[in-house]
């Protein structure tokens, strides 16, 4: 246990010193390897095995999809379509941003792409309508992690691969939590803006005009809305595997970007491929480092030590889930979601299994916690990105972000943690017993 503590102290010290997370964890891994006299060749072989899994092909493919759809500016058509329904409500443009983020997140599977695309389009509109700048930027920043929850999600693919669970079941487990979070963000946004002055609201329109706009904007948004239908419908029906669905998504996105939305160019496509290759390289190095360290910690019986510690406190699964939530939120605050997932999931799976908690239920808990972590200081990468996209000082975003965390994220986390039926209902309904 002392060596584990020393390794974690090395990680924390190096992160505080500004060393990239990947190298911080690799240093801790090398420390344990030499202290425990492990054979490095064994770990190299293990690292190669885990990084050569076919399912990881989904990562660069979904990165490609998200980048292509972002550069094709499909977010604009999604925003216009959703705005038809709620544009005449005070705070309705904020709801448009949340719903558009959920839909775009289901296409791209990326929080960064969602915030960059949807935020870049809708935030100027919100400013023109008199929305407080800090509130608007904070709302879109809090909505961007919906890409981690609404399938297909790269994070859930990695979770399923690490935990040896069904990818489809993990996809389905986060759907209802994502819907709950989107609803809580939308309601919180409207309530927080009740007393705001100087905000413009669209004029009321007749039923005939409403149906006309629905038809016009619906046709414009239809190619984008078909993307998740094709991917998820084909995957859930068993027509193709999740990896094949990612490849089909790329093949669908390219002609849509070129010939329907006409914003994609060969230059932009080339940049997309470079971004996908760069991201894949980073993810593969991260997978190697994190999975190697997780393997060493498992070999050192860390899960058994944690089980013994938790059993000494309580055998109640609800208490155990509380401790897991605290740990995941803490890790999510200091590292990115992929790193935290790769490090913790191999350790948590035997723990939750011991206490009778479903690994599929854990998928939803992990997704919500790590989504919350990326908008919570001190690291909060999405908060910094939101400040840049919205051209707002981050200090203006802190108070609204705290309100959204309290009134949207925490209720979602409580529902997901203590009402497992919400996460397990869809997987059981579609896939049977899990």
Explained architecture:
- 80% of the residues lie in helices and 0% in strands.
- It has helices at residues 2-16, 21-36, 40-51, 58-71, 74-86, 92-108, 111-128, 133-143, 146-149, 154-163, 167-173, 175-192, 207-236, 242-260, 266-299, 302-313, 317-334, 337-354, 359-373, 381-390, 394-418, 421-431.
- α15 packs parallel to α18 (337-354).
- The longest helix has 34 residues, at 266-299.
- The relative contact order is 0.14.
- The model has no long low-confidence stretch (mean pLDDT 85).
How many runs of DSSP E, i.e. beta strands? 0
N-to-C SSE string, H for helix and E for strand: HHHHHHHHHHHHHHHHHHHHHH
- Low-pLDDT sequence parts: none
What is the mean pLDDT?
Answer: 85
Keywords:
globular; 22 helices; 0% strand; mainly alpha; 434 residues
């Amino acid at each position: 246990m002392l060596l584990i503590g020393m390794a974690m102290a090395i990680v924390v010290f190096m992160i505080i010193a500004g060393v990239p997370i990947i190298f911080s964890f690799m240093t801790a891994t090398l420390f344990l390897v030499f202290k425990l006299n492990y054979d490095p060749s064994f770990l190299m072989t293990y690292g190669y095995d885990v990084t050569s899994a076919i399912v990881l092909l989904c990562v660069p493919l979904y990165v490609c999809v998200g980048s292509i759809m972002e550069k094709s500016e499909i977010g604009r058509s999604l925003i216009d379509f959703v705005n038809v329904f709620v544009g005449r409500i005070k705070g309705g443009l904020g709801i448009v941003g949340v719903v558009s983020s959920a839909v775009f997140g289901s296409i791209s599977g990326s929080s960064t792409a969602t915030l960059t695309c949807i935020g870049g389009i809708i935030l100027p509109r919100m400013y023109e309508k008199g929305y407080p700048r800090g509130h608007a930027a904070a709302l879109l920043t809090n909505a961007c992690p919906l890409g981690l929850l609404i399938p297909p999600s790269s994070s859930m693919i990695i979770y399923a691969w690490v935990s040896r669970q069904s990818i489809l079941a993990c996809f389905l487990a986060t759907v209802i939590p994502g819907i709950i979070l989107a609803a809580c963000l939308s309601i919180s946004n409207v309530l927080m803006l009740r007393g705001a002055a100087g905000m413009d609201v669209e004029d009321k329109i007749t039923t005939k005009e409403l149906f006309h706009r629905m038809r016009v904007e619906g046709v414009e948004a239809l190619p984008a809305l078909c993307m998740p239908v094709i991917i998820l419908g084909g995957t859930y029906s068993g027509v193709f595997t999740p990896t094949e669905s990612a490849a089909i998504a790329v093949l669908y996105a390219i002609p849509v970007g070129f010939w329907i939305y006409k914003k994609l160019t060969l230059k932009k496509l080339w940049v997309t491929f470079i971004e996908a290759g760069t991201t894949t390289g980073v993810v593969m190095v991260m997978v190697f480092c994190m999975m190697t360290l997780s393997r060493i910690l498992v070999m050192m019986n860390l899960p058994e030590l944690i089980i013994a510690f938790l059993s000494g406190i309580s055998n109640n699964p609800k208490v155990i889930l509380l401790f897991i939530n605290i740990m995941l939120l803490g890790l999510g605050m200091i590292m990115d979601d992929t790193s935290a997932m790769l490090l913790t999931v191999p350790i948590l799976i035997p723990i939750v299994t011991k206490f009778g908690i479903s690994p599929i239920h854990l998928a939803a808990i992990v997704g919500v916690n790590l989504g919350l972590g990326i908008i919570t200081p001190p690291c909060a990468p999405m908060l910094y990105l939101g400040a840049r996209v919205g051209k707002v000082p981050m200090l203006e975003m802190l108070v609204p972000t705290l309100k959204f965390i309290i009134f949207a994220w925490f209720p979602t986390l409580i529902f997901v943690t203590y009402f497992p039926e919400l996460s397990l209902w869809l997987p059981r309904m579609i896939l049977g017993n899990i």
